[in-house]
Amino acid sequence: MKIVIVGGGKLGFYIAKTMLNRDYEVNLIEKDKSRCVYLADHLDAEVICGDGTEIEILASSINGKVDCFIAATGSDQDNLVAAQLAKKKFQVKKVIVSANDPGNLEALRRLGMTNIVSNTEIVTRLIEHEMDTAGGKLVASLNKGKASINEFKVSSKAKILGKSLKDLQMPKTSLVVSIIREGDLIIPQGDTFFHSGDEVVIICSGEGACKKLAKLF
Is the domain defined by 2-117 classed in CATH 3.40.605.10? Predict the structure, then answer.
């Protein structure tokens, strides 16, 4: 698999390093000459010194099939230009854009970018999630932090004790996946009751959904 990355800063460097460790072919474009020397010394990748928003530079890197193009510079404007060129001029099917400012996410979407990553937004969502699920444990984050898999342990004073799953006022954007009870796995049904000490795995999304679940357990 061949990957082209525009931007050799910390983000681009570690993406390239990770992909190389997974045996991907990586071309890295960086316009700062001294940074290019560092990248060439520390990465087993083809480093191209130039501006990733220029067609000639992109053409020298996108020479043949490219499976994924990643725009990861420190400028959202440059990322947009590079990504649009890769998508429209060079017909790269998989284009990923890094948004440094979460305030630019909607603008990037309106301009046709569908695969956008914002580290700031992801971290913010994780912080908000942890605050909403006091008493619960995050198992995995889904859809860039918009949804999550969580584990809740039923306390001896939980509101759900003595009630079946079908009788609970669960958020519509949540789904009970499994229950671990005394080491045994239970796939819950509508008539499943909850016991104190149960470890319940739930998928939830939407604002406030996890917080409501935490109160139930």
Answer: no
pTM of the model as a whole = 0.63
Query: Each residue of 12-63: pLDDT tens digit?
Result: 999 999 999 999 999 999 999 999 999 999 999 999 999 999 999 999 888 8
Domain spanning 123-216: CATH 3.40.50.1110: no
Q: Do the beta carbons of residue 159 and residue 174 sit within 8 Å? A: no
Structure tokens at 39: 């990248």
Domain residue limits, the chain: 2-117, 123-216
